[in-house]
Amino acid sequence: MKIYFANALFSQAEINYNAQLAQQIRQLSPDIDLYLPQENGDINDKQAYADSTMIAQADTEQLVHSDLMVAILDGNTIDNGVATEIGVAYAKQIPVIGLYTDTRQQGADNQEKLQALSQIAENQFHYLNLYTTGLIKLNGTIVNNEPDLLAAVKKYLN
């Protein structure tokens, strides 16, 4: 099974997280062929040069030939590249598993947090673009922790 892993890759924290989670996914089965864009030195060696068309062609080629996409949705907003890749996956009918671990989603039954929604600039929850998350839900799922992500990947292996 070919899996495309989508996340930002511009800080050491993102690079480390991607590598750690990609390793966990790869350990699920020897049948997994996971593409992690940061491992593609032809386009993501930041000491070298790759223009926008080189990046778009290389990553899109991998994405459209994938059976599944894992998309990390965390951050101030969904990374622009990840959002674009989600759109491509949807158009190509490639299932997407979104991972959204933002802790601000906790307390959904807390009445104070819910009442704060009616006050200007007091949203206690994080917002994700509904169009982008809708594309995922139309052809996949969103989970909020790594064990559930790994379980969802296993379901697609069967």
From TrEMBL:
Biological classification of the source: Bacteria, Bacillati, Bacillota, Bacilli, Lactobacillales
Indicate whether Transferase appears among the record's keywords: yes
Q: Which UniProt keywords apply?
A: Transferase
* Alphabetized Pfam families for the sequence: Nuc_deoxyrib_tr
Coiled-coil annotated spans: none
Protein name per the record: Nucleoside 2-deoxyribosyltransferase
**Alphabetized InterPro entries for the sequence:** 2'-dNMP_N-hydrolase (IPR051239), Nucleoside_deoxyribTrfase (IPR007710)
What the entry lists under Gene3D superfamilies is as follows:
3.40.50.450
Q: Does the keyword Chaperone apply?
A: no
Single GO MF annotation: 5-hydroxymethyl-dUMP N-hydrolase activity
One GO BP on record is:
deoxyribonucleoside monophosphate catabolic process
